[in-house]
Structure to design on (1306 residues):
């Protein structure tokens, strides 16, 4: 076929112009979606992403501000679509939709829409996007049931299907989707926005080919993929050869059992790197199972974060990266295992532990454990409108917490977890849209996560309901906190609680529970995690500790002394001499907090014997 | 009397002035004095040899406020919020600038946590007071901020846009406790929903207020001491002017005044030349600013971010910026691709050819090596070292890439142009506009060198280069009107609008903006008020501004406004949302008092037949071709030249590539026809050109 044989060599100048052109196409698709979507989670939350693929579903480019996990797992969805239909059965004007996590999806609320792009009657590539929908049905409003035991409870499962066939809507399929979700108006609007996006992208790819010629553009695709691979290999080569390993745990299997172990062994040789998840627990009854496409995508995200974020993230960037996981394990489950938390929690854990394992090879790039969960909790109930009819409402909340300390700086405070890059919802918008009053929205500070560079802080949010509703929770790192690295302390957990109307005391709210009834006047509190510390707290710059006390990040001078060995005078000044004396006295026998579970990275250099 | 416009940019302070009797004009360019911009302003006046006593009007665009923000050199600022919400400006919106970059640093808030205190009070979403302001506690918190050294206080209480009663009371309390302290209220600066954006906006206003007040005072006193007795107006980011003494009440409106002035000037010149839909294209040393003008009017938006993630939600001409300019550095990344910028050699060390110690080849160096620039810049003040530039391209890029220096030179220019084209695309094609209907208006020092190829990449058929393109921003300050904007949140589904309430708010807004202009001494009969509504589809965050009729709204007028919103939406986003529910978000009023505008006179120009001043050997493809160079002001109006040709003037150069042609229009503007015209004889006199067009 002409496609495979006539690809010219493209010079570096044209290549750079086209590479930027592909990214621009993706960004234009995302902008189209943002501007035409209906739901708050799309428009305010920006929980959506775009990518562009070649005919073989190889990733060419993505929008650089999208959600990492969306994009990294999207090629699997397009590949699954090709496998199901075959290239020859795809036609101009076809648009496909899928959310089945066992067919390249991530979790059911993430709906992927993609379309083949034709140029001169030939299928030349795909444009796809993926967005988190407010509701896809299932046992709980918001479709994030943290206590589900099989995927059928999580929502409507849509295998790869056409929603437009040669330009005509497939109304039967769209009707089934609309009938199975709680907010059909939202869902239809958001799917329309996704389709508008891929159509925009298709037109732009066609006009690029019209301008530069099909052969040149396709030649550039090959070279962009090679270019990414060269760049990634150069980065991998900088790490010491050897095996790196780390393990961490999910709090629970979601059904009362746990913790659930995830282990990774990284073998790095030359410019190749392999991640093996042997030793991870078998798949579990609850929702923390993580499908293989998400496991692979998690490793990719960790590699981009750990190496050079400027690596163009096309297919080639991941050619040197191998991922293996035992079938039937929590990181490669068989259907119909529930996977709703696989994306929002387990994925974060995999990224964290890959970063921690690699940190021994290049500590200057290491990062301690972070919030580790999307902290999703959904509230849902009924509105009575002015004409007396009722209307469902669903609020999806996912407040973010702190990141782990890093070699060069403190952890980020209140920043999206590794897999996502959405935005929080303004309190004022919440009060306009839902029957609630936000009573508090501030930082959660404390001395947890102490280190040479401390963990970033989480937040505390109190929401008072002004109407009856139900709440469903889907959190992790609620019993096992984010880990510290290289002598840094562990951070603190994500915790939820309820103060019932009229009561003085807070009662705990389980981290994975669906449909807990709330009455008007009840207050729901979430405290999000403080990240783990990096390095010995006794090595933290004394001035930084004083600043932390002045800003109330650290409670008082007592905490500065206790945790950091820094002496602050009653006048509020730093006593440098006393600090040095106290720190040298403490050095070597600092009292470490007991870790609930040991989580220590290990590195065995290539050529040395393992197991000491 | 003289009308003088002075725009302070990052590198240069530009002056443009005209005499309203004789029509005589002046333009000068002096280095910006970063430590105190007033010195540069006075220097530009001295360089033009003008007497401040002869000024009727001095219109001024300043970056003093912007620089204070960028350099984090604002005042020690305190913040008062509703209790429990003091950390909103630190939490931000929780997204990060890049999905994968662990080296990113989250921006720090402009107010440290120790100076952020809560007040006992609560207003609900509908504006009702749930908990009355505890005045005693408020006084205690105000005193605490003073003890913590606050020179300015920002106040941002929840839902203050719906009911500002508590904010207004807090301001009175601050005045009691600390008379004269600078105070900014969120309900005054940005009366709109979203607590983070509103709080950050009011914080920025307070943070730059003491600095702006000092700057304006100093500038006024220096000018007065030199006999200045005219009006001093400052350019606002919205494109309107504000009297200097008023600007200090809400200094945030002066952020981004330079780019706005440039867009205004470009819009006015293009409109005069018959081009109503244009993209302005201002190429500076480190960045290129672009803005869309439709039907002669710039888009005004409220999306500005000086630092990533820290918004200033005030009306501002929608200018997009991309990190590609004359100083953009060429480099090779680890994967072996040639890149341009965003790192810039800036003013120091500058491009290699400037001889200021720069070693990395820049876009300016590539343009010199290509042969488009002569041996000197700034009228001979700065000699250019082409040999050094060539050597740098060879050593730093060509040798490692294994390509010829010529190919890399062209490549550097093409990549930078592609980056600039992306910026133009984002404000035009992405908004559903057909590029074939657009004109690119290029200015700034390097605009004319790269604009035509950029237009070609985007299928934009025409490029217009105004006269003295290097001073367009200064000129723009003399083409604007005194303007006052106000807005108030008004959340309502379009079918549930309370007309009486809407009319009450619109009348109050109109009275407020008109009153502010009247208080500034503007004659009341010259004040024009326009009213607008921001609408969006329910669930969306992208609002469109729709002009409302002058009189009271009734059901039919409201329905008409909603319909115009749906039409505008369809135009901008290319689809009509059949299932969308339009809703009102804000109401706005804008008062304008017209000022005399600078109008470029008919261009006298030079001779109809002139000889080239020189020839330059320009790299075209892989050969060097001798290209004629003309002094653009020596050409008569109506002249047409076929490319390749170079047109020069002090401070700016225009490149017309082969296959294109350029006209000198009746105002002296250069108009490049990117696709050329059918008849391409080397040069035409006005008469011949006219003949050829027929």
């Amino acid at each position: 076929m002409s496609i495979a044989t006539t690809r010219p060599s493209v010079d570096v100048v044209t290549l750079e112009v086209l590479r930027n052109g592909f990214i621009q196409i993706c960004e234009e698709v995302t902008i189209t979606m943002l501007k035409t979507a209906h739901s708050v989670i799309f428009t305010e939350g920006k929980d959506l992403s775009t990518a562009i693929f070649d005919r073989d579903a190889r990733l060419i480019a993505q929008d650089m501000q999208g959600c990492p996990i969306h994009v990294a797992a999207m090629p699997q969805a397009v590949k699954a679509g090709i496998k199901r239909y075959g290239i020859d059965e795809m036609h101009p004007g076809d648009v496909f939709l899928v959310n089945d996590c066992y067919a390249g999806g991530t979790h059911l609320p993430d709906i992927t829409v993609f379309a083949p792009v034709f140029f001169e009657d030939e299928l030349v590539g795909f444009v796809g996007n993926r967005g988190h929908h407010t509701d896809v049905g299932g046992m709980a409003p918001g479709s994030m049931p943290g206590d589900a035991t099989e995927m059928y409870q999580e929502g409507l499962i849509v295998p790869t299907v056409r929603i437009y066939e040669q330009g005509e809507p497939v109304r039967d399929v769209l009707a089934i989707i609309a009938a199975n979700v709680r907010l059909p108006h939202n869902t239809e609007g958001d799917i329309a926005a996704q389709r508008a996006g891929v159509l925009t992208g298709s037109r732009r790819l066609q006009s690029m080919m019209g301008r530069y010629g099909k052969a040149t553009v396709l030649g550039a695709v090959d070279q962009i993929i090679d270019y990414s691979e060269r760049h990634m290999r150069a980065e991998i080569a900088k790490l010491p050869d050897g095996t790196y390993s780390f393990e961490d745990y999910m709090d629970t299997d979601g059904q009362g059992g746990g913790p659930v172990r995830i282990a990774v062994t990284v073998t790095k040789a030359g410019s190749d790197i392999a991640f093996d998840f042997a030793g991870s627990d078998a798949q579990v009854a609850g929702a923390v199972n993580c499908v293989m496409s998400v496991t692979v995508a998690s490793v990719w995200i960790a590699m981009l974060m750990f190496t050079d974020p400027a690596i163009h993230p096309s297919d080639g960037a991941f050619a040197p990266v191998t991922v293996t996981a035992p079938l039937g394990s929590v990181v490669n489950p068989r259907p119909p295992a529930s996977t709703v938390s696989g994306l929002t929690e387990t994925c974060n854990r995999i990224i964290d532990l890959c970063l921690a394992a690699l940190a021994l090879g290049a500590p200057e790039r290491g990062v301690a454990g972070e919030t580790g969960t999307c902290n999703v909790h959904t509230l849902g109930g009924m509105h009575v409108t002015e004409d007396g009819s009722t209307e469902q409402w669903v609020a999806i909340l996912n407040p973010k917490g702190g990141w782990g300390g890093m070699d060069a700086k403190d952890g980020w405070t209140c920043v999206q977890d590794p897999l996502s890059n959405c935005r929080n919802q303004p309190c004022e918008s919440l009060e306009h849209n839902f029957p609630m009053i936000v009573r508090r929205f501030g930082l959660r500070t404390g001395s947890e996560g102490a280190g040479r560079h401390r963990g970033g802080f989480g937040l505390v949010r109190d929401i008072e309901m002004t109407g009856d509703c139900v709440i469903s929770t889907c959190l992790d790192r609620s019993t096992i906190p984010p880990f510290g690295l290289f002598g840094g302390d562990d951070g603190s957990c994500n915790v939820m609680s309820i103060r019932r109307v009229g009561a003085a005391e807070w009662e705990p709210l389980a981290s994975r529970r669906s449909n807990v009834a709330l009455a008007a006047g009840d207050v729901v509190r979430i405290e999000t995690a403080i990240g783990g510390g990096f390095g010995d707290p006794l090595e933290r710059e004394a001035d930084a500790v004083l600043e932390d006390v002045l800003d109330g990040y650290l409670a008082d001078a007592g905490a500065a002394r206790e945790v950091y060995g820094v002496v602050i005078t009653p006048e509020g000044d730093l006593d440098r001499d006393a600090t040095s004396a106290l720190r040298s006295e403490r050095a070597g026998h600092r009292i470490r907090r007991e870790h609930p579970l040991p989580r220590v990275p290990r590195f065995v250099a290539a050529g040395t014997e393992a197991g000491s | 009397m003289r009308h003088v416009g002075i725009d302070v940019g990052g590198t240069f302070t530009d002056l443009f002035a005209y005499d309203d009797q004789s029509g005589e004009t002046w333009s000068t360019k002096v280095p910006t004095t970063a430590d105190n911009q007033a010195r540069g302003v006075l220097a530009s006046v001295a360089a033009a040899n003008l007497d401040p006593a002869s000024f009727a009007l001095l219109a001024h665009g300043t970056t003093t406020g912007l620089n204070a923000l960028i350099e984090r050199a604002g005042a020690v600022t305190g913040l008062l919020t509703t209790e429990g919400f003091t950390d909103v400006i630190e939490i931000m919106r929780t997204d990060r600038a890049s999905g994968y970059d662990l080296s990113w640093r989250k921006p720090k808030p402009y107010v440290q946590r120790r100076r952020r205190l809560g007040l006992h009070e609560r207003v609900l979403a509908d504006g009702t007071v749930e908990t009355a302001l505890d005045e005693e506690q408020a006084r205690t918190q105000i005193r605490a901020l003073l003890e913590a050294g606050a020179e300015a206080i920002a106040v941002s209480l929840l839902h203050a846009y719906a009911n500002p009663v508590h904010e207004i009371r807090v301001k009175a309390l601050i005045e009691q406790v600390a008379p004269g302290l600078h105070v900014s209220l969120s309900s005054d600066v940005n009366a709109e929903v979203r607590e983070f954006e509103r709080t950050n906006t009011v914080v920025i206003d307070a943070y730059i207020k003491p600095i702006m007040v000092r700057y304006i005072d100093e500038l006024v006193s220096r000018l007065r001491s030199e006999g200045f007795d005219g009006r001093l107006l400052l350019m606002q980011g919205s494109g309107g002017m504000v009297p200097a003494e008023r600007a200090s009440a809400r200094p945030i409106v002066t952020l981004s005044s330079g780019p706005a002035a440039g867009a205004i000037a470009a819009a006015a010149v293009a409109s005069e030349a018959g081009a109503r839909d244009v993209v302005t294209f201002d190429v500076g040393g480190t960045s290129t600013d672009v803005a869309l003008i439709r039907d002669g009017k710039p888009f005004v938006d409220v999306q500005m971010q000086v630092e990533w993630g820290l918004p200033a939600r005030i009306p501002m001409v929608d200018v997009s910026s991309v990190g590609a300019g004359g100083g953009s550095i060429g480099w090779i990344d680890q994967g072996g691709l040639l890149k341009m910028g965003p790192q810039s050699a800036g003013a120091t060390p500058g491009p290699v050819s400037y001889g200021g110690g720069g070693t990395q080849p820049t876009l300016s160096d590539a343009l010199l090596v290509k042969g488009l620039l002569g041996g000197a810049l700034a009228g001979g003040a700065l000699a250019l070292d082409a040999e050094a530039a060539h050597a740098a391209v060879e050593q730093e890029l060509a040798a490692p890439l294994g390509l010829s220096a010529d190919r890399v030179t062209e490549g550097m220019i093409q990549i930078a142009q592609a980056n600039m084209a992306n910026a133009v695309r984002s404000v035009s094609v992405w908004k559903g506009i057909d590029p074939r209907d657009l004109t690119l208006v290029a200015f700034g020092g390097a605009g004319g060198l790269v604009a035509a190829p950029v237009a070609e990449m985007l299928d934009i058929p025409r490029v217009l280069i105004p006269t003295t393109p290097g001073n367009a921003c200064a000129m723009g300050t003399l083409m604007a009107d005194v303007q006052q904007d106000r807005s108030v949140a008004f959340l309502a589904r379009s079918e549930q609008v309370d007309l009486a309430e809407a009319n009450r708010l619109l009348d109050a807004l109109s009275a407020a903006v008109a009153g502010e202009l009247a208080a500034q001494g503007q004659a009341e009969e010259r004040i024009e008020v326009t009213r607008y509504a921001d609408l969006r589809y329910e669930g969306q965050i992208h609002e469109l501004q729709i002009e409302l009729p002058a009189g009271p709204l009734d059901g039919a007028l409201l329905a008409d406004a909603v319909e115009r919103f749906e039409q505008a939406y369809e135009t901008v986003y290319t689809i009509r949302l059949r299932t969308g529910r339009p809703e009102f978000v804000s109401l706005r009023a804008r008062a304008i008092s017209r000022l005399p505008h600078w109008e470029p006179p008919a261009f006298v120009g030079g001779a109809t037949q002139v000889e080239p001043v020189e020839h330059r050997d320009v790299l075209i493809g892989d050969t060097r071709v001798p290209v004629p160079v003309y002094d653009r002001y020596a050409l008569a109006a109506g002249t047409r030249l076929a490319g390749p040709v170079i047109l020069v003037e002090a401070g700016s150069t225009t490149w017309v590539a082969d296959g294109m042609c350029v006209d000198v229009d009746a105002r002296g503007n250069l108009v490049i026809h990117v696709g050329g015209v059918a008849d391409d004889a080397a040069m035409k006199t006005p008469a011949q050109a006219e003949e050829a067009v027929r």
